[in-house]
TrEMBL record:
Its cofactor is FMN. This is 4-hydroxymandelate oxidase. Its EC number is 1.1.3.46. Residues 1-342 form the FMN hydroxy acid dehydrogenase domain.
Amino acid sequence: MRWIDGLEAAAAEKLPEPVHRYFRQGSAGGLSVGEAVDAWSSYRFRPRVLTDVSTISTGTTVLGTPVAGPVLVAPTTMQRQADPDGEAAMSAGVAAAGSVLGVSSNAGTTYAEIGAAGAPWWLQIYVTRNRDYTRQMLDAAVAAGARAVVLTADTPVVGRKEDEGQTVWDLVQPGHLRANVDESAYSDDDLAKADDLTPDVIDWLGSSTGLPVVVKGVLRGDDARRCVDAGAAGLIVSNHGGRQLDGAIATAHALPEVVQAVAGTNTEVYVDGGIRRGEHVLTALALGARAVFVGRPALWALTVGSSPGVTRLLTDLYAEFAHALTLVGVPGPEHLTPDLIS
Ligand code: FNR
């Protein structure tokens, strides 16, 4: 068995049950979370033969930042439930693998600590009803060296999870969630997620920070186009790991339409959800993604092996991707094309 395949079970032995459940679960009936992995495995390859694959390179760039492989870490909350050093430990592990870290709006570690731990990082943002609060978070992230802003656009409200009994919210310590801005001056209503956003917010985020804006949660070509027309530098095809609208289309199936909609622009398209193997990475890149993100596997790896666990997860996936590249007859990500997929 691959080390990656045993990670969730190993993490479950270490985590309190409500934390494991929170990491694992999808929203409502669990349809989208349940089919994400299989959707990647539904594609088949049309490999090339008699090509020179004696030198394989997995490296690429994401918004100009070089990465050793096209597997990045998705923004997730509650990382201090997985490791006492939370996002700082995640950052150190990502840095050692030469990748990029997405940092949640709800991070439980200060941006300064995360930045100092070494990985290039992008701030994920939920825009709140009170924009001053969002603005403070953006300013803090810029000061700590964030290289991009990732607007999560699929969360006008948080998707309902079917929980019973104790939940992660009963366990989280004060300060281990949203550690970056003092919330005491704000009401619950101020901090609720804005449910009236339009593409104009992309320009606001870009001009407030001077950073490229990536929109996360895009599943349709027409929305992709609206985001790019409004100034987005990148898009993440995502259904939030099946945690928002249950029954939302699998990202493996939504990706081609989004790629096609922004063809001819220099928009970078990324994808997340159910990516668990090098062959899934190969599929995503052949379909036009620049890179992929992994969410839950990084939480399991952080739980089980702290920073070195995260490094191993990413380097194992790069190695599998390199192996799959060799077998599909292509020496590097820049040579992948959709005709390799059927
Ligand atoms: C998430 N995700 C997420 N997304 C986001 O934009 N902001 C956030 O704070 C969080 N928090 C979060 C917590 C947990 C426990 C999970 C599992 C996920 C979604 C995440 O960024 C990503 O879209 C999915 O996790 C990708 O799917 P996989 O790789 O987990 O299958």
